[in-house]
Amino acid sequence: MTTIALTGGIASGKTTISNRLRELGAVIIDADEIAREIVQPGKRVLREIVDRFGQEILNDDGTLNRKALADIVFNDDDELRALNDLTHPEIRRITRERIETTLIDDPDAIFVHDIPLLAENRSNYDYDEIWVADAPAEVRRERLMEDRGMSAEEAQARIDAQVSDEERRMIADVVIDTTRPISDTIEHIDEMFVRLRLGDFAASDEVSYDTAPITVPKEERTSED
Ligand SMILES: CC(C)(COP(=O)(O)OP(=O)(O)OC[C@H]1O[C@@H](n2cnc3c(N)ncnc32)[C@H](O)[C@@H]1O)[C@@H](O)C(=O)NCCC(=O)NCCS
Ligand SMILES: Nc1ncnc2c1ncn2[C@@H]1O[C@H](COP(=O)(O)OP(=O)(O)OP(=O)(O)O)[C@@H](O)[C@H]1O
């Protein structure tokens, strides 16, 4: 088994990269997808979220009103922590379960764990390599406004809820520059996948996840963050 963590700030290009890796034969475990599954109507985690945040975060049909919840949690660190405490243990449990099930069927699988909050949570997984999709916050803010119809304030609030680009790069074994044309990024991914198949890992002893800081206070971030 080979395990790769694919992380990056919001709108950094992770999904574009993981779609290509799936085409190449990797098994993708997508944390955002699992996070959506656990808040479907009838699930325990959704009930707990309603108990904590109130009926206002539900749509009329009983599904989660994602924008209403996003407006609350991405503007208040305590509320975000409360949501994370309700969702992250279950996301971690399902992730482990998926890895174990896949391993039974395919012990040689190349796993790619698409995990946006790896640096934030210092998630305790043992990866062969950590790949970071990297684009400056300004570029990602524009993408969120253009592609996802967010206001500048909404986009900035999401970016501010995450660690800086610099902190993410500190835990990287491989940095993937996603400001380049997508075809260049795909070519880079294809080359790295060949390397993985050969079992030739880029992990450097000098990159130590354990010594990376967890956050840089907002006021100390540089404009490139
Ligand atoms: C608040 C919610 C409902 C907003 O939903 P929405 O559809 O607008 O966003 P979506 O889930 O598609 O996430 C998009 C991106 O937002 C960022 N993001 C999401 N949750 C968080 C969080 N808790 N902290 C920081 N960034 C986050 C990530 O970069 C993610 O890729 C949703 O993000 C959520 O339930 N978050 C808590 C679960 C979680 O932490 N998910 C992240 C992966 S583990
Ligand atoms: N070189 C590139 N590599 C990857 N994505 C790129 C590149 N250039 C532009 N993009 C664009 O960046 C946008 C964000 O990409 P994507 O949806 O893959 O990000 P993401 O990290 O999965 O987002 P989220 O954090 O919301 O899950 C997409 O519109 C994608 O087309």
CATH architecture: 3-Layer(aba) Sandwich
How far apart are the termini?
34 Å
Oligomerization state: single chain
The proportion of residues in beta strands is: 5-15%
Mean pLDDT: 89
Total domain modules: 1
Family: Belongs to the CoaE family.
Function: Catalyzes the phosphorylation of the 3'-hydroxyl group of dephosphocoenzyme A to form coenzyme A.
EC number: 2.7.1.24
Subcellular location: Cytoplasm
Question: Can you describe what's shown?
Answer:
- Keywords: ATP-binding, Coenzyme A biosynthesis, Cytoplasm, Kinase, Nucleotide-binding, Transferase.
- This protein has a five-stranded parallel beta sheet, with helices on both faces.
- The chain contains ten helices and five strands; from the N terminus they run βαβααααβαβαααβα.
- The protein starts with a strand and ends in a 28-residue tail after the last helix.
- The chain has a single domain (2-210), classed as Rossmann fold (3-Layer(aba) Sandwich).
- The chain is α/β, with parallel strands linked by helices.
- It binds dephospho coenzyme A and adenosine-5'-triphosphate.
- Dephospho coenzyme A binds next to helix 2, helix 4 and helix 5.
List keywords for this structure.
10 helices, binds dephospho coenzyme A, alpha/beta, five-stranded parallel β-sheet, single chain, 225 residues, disordered C terminus
